[in-house]
Amino acid sequence: MQREQLVTEIKSLMALVDDKTTDLADSVMEIDVREYYDPGQFEREKIELFRNYPQFVGPSCMIPEPGDYFAFDDTGIPILVVRNQERELRAFVNICSHRGAPLNECESGKAKNGRLFSCPYHGWSYDLEGSLVGVPFGKQGFDSIDRATLGLKPLQVEEKDGMIFVMPNPDRRFDIDEVLGGIGQRLSGFGFEDHYYLGSKQVHTDFSWKLNMDTFHEYYHFEFLHPETIGQMAYSNLATYHQYGRNHSMGSATLQINELKEISEDEWNPRAYSSYVNYIFPNTVIFVVEDHFQTWRVYPISPDRSVVYHSMFLPQEPENAQQRQEYEDYFQMINDVAVAEDYSLVDKINRGVNCGIERKVLVGRNEPGVQNMHRQLHELLGRE
Question: Would you say the pTM of this structure is higher than 0.85?
Answer without folding.
Answer: yes
